[in-house]
From TrEMBL:
SUPFAM superfamilies: Glyoxalase/Bleomycin resistance protein/Dihydroxybiphenyl dioxygenase. Pfam families: Glyoxalase_6. This is Glyoxalase/bleomycin resistance/extradiol dioxygenase family protein. Keywords: Dioxygenase, Oxidoreductase. It comes from Streptomyces cahuitamycinicus. Residues 22-136, 150-265 form the VOC domain.
Length: 267
Protein backbone atom coordinates (compact mmCIF):
# COMPACT_ATOMS: atom_id res chain seq x y z
CA UNK A 1 0.00 0.00 0.00
CA UNK A 2 0.95 3.63 -0.19
CA UNK A 3 -0.31 7.00 0.94
CA UNK A 4 -3.57 8.44 -0.33
CA UNK A 5 -6.14 11.02 0.63
CA UNK A 6 -9.79 11.45 -0.29
CA UNK A 7 -11.95 14.39 -1.15
CA UNK A 8 -11.86 16.34 2.09
CA UNK A 9 -9.40 17.09 4.83
CA UNK A 10 -9.54 16.20 8.51
CA UNK A 11 -10.99 19.59 9.35
CA UNK A 12 -14.22 18.80 7.54
CA UNK A 13 -13.59 20.85 4.43
CA UNK A 14 -16.41 20.99 1.90
CA UNK A 15 -16.24 17.71 -0.08
CA UNK A 16 -15.60 17.90 -3.79
CA UNK A 17 -16.49 15.58 -6.62
CA UNK A 18 -14.13 12.60 -6.84
CA UNK A 19 -12.03 12.35 -9.99
CA UNK A 20 -13.02 9.53 -12.37
CA UNK A 21 -11.39 6.30 -11.22
CA UNK A 22 -10.77 7.50 -7.67
CA UNK A 23 -12.23 5.43 -4.83
CA UNK A 24 -15.26 7.40 -3.68
CA UNK A 25 -17.21 5.11 -1.32
CA UNK A 26 -17.13 1.79 0.51
CA UNK A 27 -20.19 -0.29 1.25
CA UNK A 28 -20.92 -3.48 3.17
CA UNK A 29 -23.94 -5.76 2.72
CA UNK A 30 -24.70 -8.02 5.69
CA UNK A 31 -27.44 -10.23 7.11
CA UNK A 32 -27.66 -8.58 10.55
CA UNK A 33 -27.77 -4.86 9.86
CA UNK A 34 -28.60 -3.74 13.41
CA UNK A 35 -25.77 -5.77 14.95
CA UNK A 36 -23.35 -4.53 12.28
CA UNK A 37 -24.28 -0.91 13.03
CA UNK A 38 -23.57 -1.56 16.71
CA UNK A 39 -20.19 -3.13 15.93
CA UNK A 40 -18.87 -0.39 13.65
CA UNK A 41 -20.47 2.36 15.71
CA UNK A 42 -18.55 1.14 18.74
CA UNK A 43 -15.32 0.51 16.80
CA UNK A 44 -15.13 3.72 14.76
CA UNK A 45 -17.56 6.10 16.46
CA UNK A 46 -19.92 6.07 13.49
CA UNK A 47 -23.53 7.22 13.63
CA UNK A 48 -26.10 6.24 11.02
CA UNK A 49 -28.86 7.73 8.90
CA UNK A 50 -31.11 6.12 6.25
CA UNK A 51 -29.84 6.03 2.67
CA UNK A 52 -31.34 4.95 -0.68
CA UNK A 53 -33.32 1.71 -0.40
CA UNK A 54 -33.08 0.47 -4.02
CA UNK A 55 -31.14 -2.65 -2.98
CA UNK A 56 -32.99 -3.10 0.32
CA UNK A 57 -32.53 -1.55 3.80
CA UNK A 58 -29.46 0.73 3.71
CA UNK A 59 -27.85 3.28 6.01
CA UNK A 60 -25.00 5.72 5.64
CA UNK A 61 -22.35 5.88 8.33
CA UNK A 62 -21.40 9.35 9.51
CA UNK A 63 -18.37 10.57 11.44
CA UNK A 64 -18.94 13.96 13.06
CA UNK A 65 -21.75 14.51 10.55
CA UNK A 66 -19.68 13.58 7.49
CA UNK A 67 -20.61 10.54 5.38
CA UNK A 68 -17.87 7.89 5.31
CA UNK A 69 -19.38 4.50 4.35
CA UNK A 70 -22.57 2.55 3.72
CA UNK A 71 -24.15 -0.53 5.31
CA UNK A 72 -26.99 -2.54 3.80
CA UNK A 73 -29.00 -5.70 4.49
CA UNK A 74 -28.72 -8.65 2.13
CA UNK A 75 -32.00 -10.27 1.08
CA UNK A 76 -32.51 -13.49 3.08
CA UNK A 77 -32.32 -15.61 -0.09
CA UNK A 78 -29.00 -14.13 -1.28
CA UNK A 79 -25.97 -16.11 -0.16
CA UNK A 80 -23.24 -13.72 -1.20
CA UNK A 81 -19.82 -13.20 0.42
CA UNK A 82 -19.99 -10.69 3.27
CA UNK A 83 -17.38 -8.19 2.07
CA UNK A 84 -16.54 -4.51 2.00
CA UNK A 85 -16.90 -3.26 -1.58
CA UNK A 86 -15.04 -0.17 -2.85
CA UNK A 87 -16.79 2.08 -5.37
CA UNK A 88 -14.83 3.94 -8.02
CA UNK A 89 -16.03 7.24 -9.46
CA UNK A 90 -17.32 7.43 -13.02
CA UNK A 91 -18.79 10.24 -15.09
CA UNK A 92 -20.94 7.72 -16.99
CA UNK A 93 -21.66 4.48 -15.17
CA UNK A 94 -23.41 2.91 -18.17
CA UNK A 95 -20.39 3.45 -20.40
CA UNK A 96 -18.03 2.20 -17.68
CA UNK A 97 -20.18 -0.92 -17.21
CA UNK A 98 -20.01 -1.62 -20.94
CA UNK A 99 -16.23 -1.32 -20.80
CA UNK A 100 -16.13 -3.76 -17.87
CA UNK A 101 -18.05 -6.31 -19.94
CA UNK A 102 -15.98 -5.78 -23.07
CA UNK A 103 -12.74 -6.37 -21.13
CA UNK A 104 -13.74 -9.67 -19.59
CA UNK A 105 -15.41 -8.50 -16.39
CA UNK A 106 -19.04 -8.95 -15.40
CA UNK A 107 -21.79 -6.64 -14.15
CA UNK A 108 -23.97 -8.27 -11.52
CA UNK A 109 -26.11 -5.32 -10.41
CA UNK A 110 -27.30 -2.32 -12.44
CA UNK A 111 -26.61 0.14 -13.75
CA UNK A 112 -29.48 1.60 -11.75
CA UNK A 113 -30.46 4.86 -10.08
CA UNK A 114 -30.15 5.20 -6.28
CA UNK A 115 -32.93 7.75 -5.87
CA UNK A 116 -31.46 11.24 -6.37
CA UNK A 117 -28.09 10.22 -4.86
CA UNK A 118 -26.54 8.95 -8.08
CA UNK A 119 -26.30 5.94 -10.35
CA UNK A 120 -24.46 2.72 -9.58
CA UNK A 121 -23.35 -0.64 -10.86
CA UNK A 122 -21.65 -3.54 -9.11
CA UNK A 123 -19.33 -5.75 -11.11
CA UNK A 124 -16.35 -8.04 -10.90
CA UNK A 125 -13.00 -8.10 -12.66
CA UNK A 126 -11.87 -11.06 -14.81
CA UNK A 127 -10.35 -12.76 -11.75
CA UNK A 128 -13.62 -12.43 -9.80
CA UNK A 129 -12.97 -9.53 -7.39
CA UNK A 130 -16.12 -7.47 -6.78
CA UNK A 131 -16.16 -3.65 -7.01
CA UNK A 132 -18.68 -0.86 -7.46
CA UNK A 133 -19.01 2.02 -9.91
CA UNK A 134 -20.57 5.30 -8.76
CA UNK A 135 -21.82 8.20 -10.87
CA UNK A 136 -22.48 10.96 -8.35
CA UNK A 137 -25.51 13.22 -8.29
CA UNK A 138 -26.65 14.48 -4.87
CA UNK A 139 -24.32 12.07 -3.05
CA UNK A 140 -20.65 12.70 -3.87
CA UNK A 141 -19.32 9.85 -1.76
CA UNK A 142 -16.96 9.73 1.21
CA UNK A 143 -16.88 13.26 2.58
CA UNK A 144 -13.89 13.22 4.94
CA UNK A 145 -10.52 11.46 5.12
CA UNK A 146 -7.29 11.48 7.06
CA UNK A 147 -8.85 10.96 10.48
CA UNK A 148 -9.63 7.92 12.61
CA UNK A 149 -12.66 5.98 11.39
CA UNK A 150 -12.34 6.89 7.70
CA UNK A 151 -11.31 4.74 4.70
CA UNK A 152 -7.59 5.27 4.06
CA UNK A 153 -6.73 2.89 1.23
CA UNK A 154 -8.13 0.12 -0.98
CA UNK A 155 -6.00 -2.83 -2.03
CA UNK A 156 -6.84 -5.72 -4.32
CA UNK A 157 -5.52 -9.15 -3.34
CA UNK A 158 -5.38 -11.30 -6.47
CA UNK A 159 -3.32 -14.04 -8.10
CA UNK A 160 -1.06 -11.76 -10.16
CA UNK A 161 -1.08 -8.04 -10.82
CA UNK A 162 -0.18 -7.46 -14.49
CA UNK A 163 -3.28 -8.65 -16.36
CA UNK A 164 -5.68 -7.41 -13.66
CA UNK A 165 -3.99 -4.00 -13.59
CA UNK A 166 -4.44 -3.79 -17.37
CA UNK A 167 -8.19 -4.40 -16.90
CA UNK A 168 -8.56 -1.61 -14.33
CA UNK A 169 -6.37 0.73 -16.39
CA UNK A 170 -8.62 0.22 -19.42
CA UNK A 171 -11.84 0.63 -17.43
CA UNK A 172 -10.87 3.63 -15.29
CA UNK A 173 -7.88 5.20 -17.05
CA UNK A 174 -5.36 4.64 -14.27
CA UNK A 175 -1.65 5.22 -14.57
CA UNK A 176 0.39 2.34 -13.14
CA UNK A 177 3.45 2.23 -10.92
CA UNK A 178 4.69 -1.36 -10.62
CA UNK A 179 7.12 -2.45 -7.93
CA UNK A 180 10.27 -3.76 -9.61
CA UNK A 181 11.01 -6.83 -7.51
CA UNK A 182 11.44 -10.52 -8.19
CA UNK A 183 9.59 -11.54 -5.03
CA UNK A 184 6.98 -8.80 -4.55
CA UNK A 185 4.18 -8.46 -7.13
CA UNK A 186 2.55 -5.05 -6.60
CA UNK A 187 1.12 -2.28 -8.79
CA UNK A 188 -0.01 1.10 -7.46
CA UNK A 189 -2.83 2.75 -9.41
CA UNK A 190 -2.68 6.53 -9.88
CA UNK A 191 -5.22 9.19 -10.83
CA UNK A 192 -3.93 12.63 -11.74
CA UNK A 193 -0.43 11.73 -10.63
CA UNK A 194 -1.47 10.59 -7.15
CA UNK A 195 -1.85 7.05 -5.74
CA UNK A 196 -5.43 5.88 -5.20
CA UNK A 197 -5.34 2.08 -4.88
CA UNK A 198 -3.06 -0.95 -5.05
CA UNK A 199 -3.05 -4.39 -6.64
CA UNK A 200 -1.11 -7.09 -4.79
CA UNK A 201 -0.48 -10.38 -6.57
CA UNK A 202 -0.09 -13.06 -3.91
CA UNK A 203 -0.40 -16.21 -6.02
CA UNK A 204 -1.31 -19.33 -4.05
CA UNK A 205 -1.23 -17.37 -0.79
CA UNK A 206 -4.72 -16.12 -1.65
CA UNK A 207 -7.28 -17.56 0.79
CA UNK A 208 -8.99 -20.51 -0.90
CA UNK A 209 -12.30 -19.72 0.73
CA UNK A 210 -12.31 -16.14 -0.52
CA UNK A 211 -10.62 -15.80 -3.92
CA UNK A 212 -9.49 -12.42 -5.30
CA UNK A 213 -11.00 -9.56 -3.30
CA UNK A 214 -10.59 -5.90 -2.40
CA UNK A 215 -9.52 -4.97 1.13
CA UNK A 216 -10.41 -1.58 2.61
CA UNK A 217 -8.01 -0.05 5.16
CA UNK A 218 -9.61 2.12 7.84
CA UNK A 219 -7.48 4.66 9.67
CA UNK A 220 -7.25 4.45 13.47
CA UNK A 221 -5.35 6.48 16.06
CA UNK A 222 -3.88 3.42 17.84
CA UNK A 223 -4.05 0.10 16.02
CA UNK A 224 -3.23 -2.01 19.09
CA UNK A 225 -6.09 -0.45 21.06
CA UNK A 226 -8.41 -0.79 18.04
CA UNK A 227 -7.60 -4.50 17.71
CA UNK A 228 -8.28 -5.10 21.40
CA UNK A 229 -11.59 -3.26 21.06
CA UNK A 230 -12.50 -5.19 17.91
CA UNK A 231 -11.94 -8.54 19.62
CA UNK A 232 -14.02 -7.42 22.61
CA UNK A 233 -16.83 -6.52 20.17
CA UNK A 234 -16.80 -9.99 18.59
CA UNK A 235 -14.43 -9.44 15.65
CA UNK A 236 -11.40 -11.57 14.89
CA UNK A 237 -7.77 -10.97 14.00
CA UNK A 238 -6.63 -12.50 10.69
CA UNK A 239 -3.09 -11.09 10.72
CA UNK A 240 -1.76 -9.52 13.92
CA UNK A 241 -0.45 -5.96 14.14
CA UNK A 242 2.75 -5.52 12.16
CA UNK A 243 4.87 -2.61 11.01
CA UNK A 244 4.98 -1.56 7.36
CA UNK A 245 6.56 1.34 5.50
CA UNK A 246 3.20 3.10 5.66
CA UNK A 247 2.33 2.50 9.30
CA UNK A 248 1.17 -0.21 11.69
CA UNK A 249 -1.40 -2.54 10.17
CA UNK A 250 -3.66 -5.40 11.26
CA UNK A 251 -5.89 -7.58 9.07
CA UNK A 252 -9.19 -8.26 10.80
CA UNK A 253 -12.80 -9.35 10.27
CA UNK A 254 -16.10 -8.26 11.74
CA UNK A 255 -18.53 -10.69 13.47
CA UNK A 256 -20.13 -11.66 10.12
CA UNK A 257 -16.73 -12.31 8.55
CA UNK A 258 -16.24 -9.18 6.45
CA UNK A 259 -12.48 -8.67 6.11
CA UNK A 260 -10.81 -5.27 6.40
CA UNK A 261 -7.61 -3.73 7.69
CA UNK A 262 -6.79 -1.23 10.42
CA UNK A 263 -4.06 1.31 9.72
CA UNK A 264 -2.20 3.55 12.14
CA UNK A 265 -0.17 6.01 10.09
CA UNK A 266 3.40 6.90 11.16
CA UNK A 267 3.78 9.79 13.56
Amino acid sequence: MTDARGSAGPNGDTPTRHAPGAPCWVSLMVHGLDATEEFYGALFGWEFQPGPQQLGPYVRALLDGHEVAGLGRLPPDRHLPIAWTPYFASENVDLTAETVRSRGGTIGVGPLDAADAGRLAIGSDPAGAVFGIWQAAAHLGTAVSGVSGTPAWNELLTYESASVAKFYRTVFGYEEEPVVSADFDYVTLHVGGGPVAGIHGVGHALPRDRGPHWVTYFQVADVDDAVDHLVHLGGQVLKPVHDTAHGRVARVADPEGARFALLQRPG
